[in-house]
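Researcher: We plan to redesign the surface later, but first we want a full-length starting point. Tokens attached.
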């Protein structure tokens, strides 16, 4: 007796539905895409209990005739693809002909529609399907467009239903989805209701910028920089956040290819690499990115839910996106500022000593309070516990770092973010931070990351001019590589030698080091090489020459830079600030950490109760 059997159709349909419908948001996605392909100018979505109980999607598109409405629930039935050659240049959002039958097989579905060119006295069509079985087909009064109501999702697949999340979680996914499509189609009206409460009402606007304003507000928009670039037939436009506008998850990254919402590793990698020197690796920027290219240069038929794509020229797309964002970020930098965040104590005289007892509005500056600050969460270097002997007095007025203080656009984009002229050095704190003052107030400079930025840019300049200074070793050093490091070493060896290293294989997994970059002459070359190789292993896409060079320069500069807890003379500190002022980006180290903080004179006087 044969062990292999053809599955019953109802079971096959449920399996197919599992590939397309992961959660209620998947249903909304498929229905919205059908509506957009139908030429809708207004889309309304209503849900109950996060879409688990009921989903309604109504549009004013072209609608369907009765025959087409019935045929639409057959598998692989579609009006959007006619020939095999059409797969090479898909221009519609939907094309598989699987969405409606898959959704109908795991829900109680009602569809009402009428074809737009039918005479006015022609009724619409209503279909009712339960678990993939057609129950009724009848005429109903209906205006132009289509409405699909999906109830009791996964009612006949309890194993899938029990894996759905809480109502608010599922609603959050739907809200983000509708937001995605509203951003991609500003010329169309989108509304979203939940339990009778309207969450989104985005009326048509002429530009994406105005749609961003509608959905997120002016304060959000001011923290974005505009993107616009082209390479041949490929263009990129949209918005990216200034480095201070960060998130702890990637939910605020919106990627579109020919206005198709996608999740793509090439685009994600390009964005992360563009922000490598602007934000820490643990943070996520806000990105609204539109890539437009000929339909035959992209394959959208690589995922059942049509959320992944494959570019024919992925290196061109990757490079264009990365370069476009890097260029936009270069002009959006300034020195971060501290600002007073607590209320002034009650009864504090404007020009006198503080009273013995502070008012109830004061907030103690403690590690626990500071840890809740977005700055600490994003950058993942929490405050150290304060020793009891150094504890602040009870009621001490707090100073808090706002995330927008990190990198904001200067008033004049052409002016440098930092000038050393007029800066007076006062000394060091903990032999780690340089304290200085200028006409605006107090400056605190992290000496390690400041020197790291200086060395990094010197290495980059030397590499561009093929003039990296080297330091030969009196006695060559041998380094034993781990197997995974040895596998990567041959790939990066040419770039290591270009960056001032002179290395060669010495049998097996042993490497012989004959020289180092001059700035790294005092560095442990074994630790440096290990750090370079380990860093390259964590890259999230195929390594290219630019990424290898950058990783080498970043690791070399970090290892060679002045360390914390290192006393510096006044002359050395002055040299450090002078050299920092000459760098292209004097506000952040190559890892994205801030180099300096500013405490303005206004804040000093305000905290002392003088204003």
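Model: Full-length starting sequence:
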């Amino acid at each position: 007796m044969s062990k292999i059997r053809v599955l019953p159709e109802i079971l096959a349909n449920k399996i197919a539905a599992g590939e397309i419908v992961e959660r209620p948001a998947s249903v909304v996605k498929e229905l919205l895409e059908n509506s957009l392909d139908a030429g809708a100018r207004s889309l309304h979505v209503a849900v109950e209990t996060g879409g688990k109980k009921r989903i309604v999607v109504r549009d004013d598109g072209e609608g369907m005739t009765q025959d087409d409405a019935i045929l639409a629930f057959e598998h692989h039935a579609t009006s959007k693809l006619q020939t095999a050659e059409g797969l090479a240049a898909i221009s519609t959002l939907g094309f598989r002909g699987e969405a409606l039958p898959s959704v109908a097989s795991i829900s109680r579905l009602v569809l009402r529609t009428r074809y737009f060119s039918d005479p006015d006295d022609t009724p619409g069509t209503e279909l009712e399907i339960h678990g993939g079985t057609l129950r009724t087909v009848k005429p109903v009064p209906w205006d132009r467009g289509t409405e699909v109501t999906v109830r009791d999702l996964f009612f006949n697949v309890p194993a899938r239903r029990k894996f759905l999340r809480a109502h608010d979680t599922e609603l959050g996914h739907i809200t983000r989805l509708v937001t995605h499509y509203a951003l991609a189609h500003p010329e169309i009206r989108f509304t979203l209701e939940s339990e009778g409460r309207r969450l989104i009402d985005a009326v048509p606007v002429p530009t994406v910028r105005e749609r961003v304003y509608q959905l997120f507000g002016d304060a959000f928009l001011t923290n974005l920089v505009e993107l616009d670039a082209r390479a041949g037939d490929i263009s990129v436009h949209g918005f990216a956040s200034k480095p201070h506008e960060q998130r702890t998850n990637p939910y605020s990254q919106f990627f579109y290819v020919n206005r198709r919402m996608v999740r793509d590793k090439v685009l994600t990698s390009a964005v992360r690499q563009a922000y490598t020197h602007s934000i820490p690796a643990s943070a996520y920027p806000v990105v609204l990115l539109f890539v437009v290219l000929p339909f035959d240069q992209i394959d959208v038929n690589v995922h059942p839910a049509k959320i992944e794509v494959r570019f024919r020229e992925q290196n061109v797309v990757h490079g264009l996106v990365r370069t476009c964002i890097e260029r936009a970020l270069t002009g959006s930098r300034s020195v971060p500022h501290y600002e007073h965040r607590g209320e002034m104590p009650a009864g504090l005289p404007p020009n006198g000593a503080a009273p013995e007892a502070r008012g109830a509005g004061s907030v103690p500056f403690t590690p626990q309070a500071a840890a809740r600050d977005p700055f600490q969460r994003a950058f993942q270097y929490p405050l150290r516990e304060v020793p009891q002997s150094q504890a602040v007095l009870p009621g001490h007025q707090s100073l808090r770092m706002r995330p927008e203080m990190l990198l904001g656009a200067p008033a004049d984009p052409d002016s440098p973010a930092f000038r050393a002229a007029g800066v007076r050095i006062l000394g060091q704190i903990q032999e780690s931070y340089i304290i200085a003052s200028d006409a605006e107030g107090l400056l605190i400079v992290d000496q390690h990351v400041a020197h790291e930025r200086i060395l990094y840019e010197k290495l980059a300049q030397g590499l561009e001019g093929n003039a990296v200074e080297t330091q030969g070793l009196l006695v060559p050093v041998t380094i034993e590589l781990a197997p995974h490091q040895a596998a990567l070493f041959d790939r990066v060896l040419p770039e290591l030698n270009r960056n001032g290293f002179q290395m060669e294989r010495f049998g097996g997994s042993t490497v012989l080091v004959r020289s180092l970059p001059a700035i790294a002459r005092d560095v442990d070359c074994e630790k440096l090489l290990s750090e370079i190789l380990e860093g390259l292993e964590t890259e999230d896409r195929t390594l290219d020459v630019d990424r290898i060079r950058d990783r080498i320069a970043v690791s070399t500069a970090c290892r060679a830079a002045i360390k914390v807890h290192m006393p510096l003379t006044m002359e050395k500190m002055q040299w450090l600030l002078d050299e920092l002022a000459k760098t292209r980006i004097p506000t952040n180290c190559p890892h994205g950490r801030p180099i300096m903080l500013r405490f303005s004179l206004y804040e000093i006087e305000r905290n002392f109760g003088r204003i």
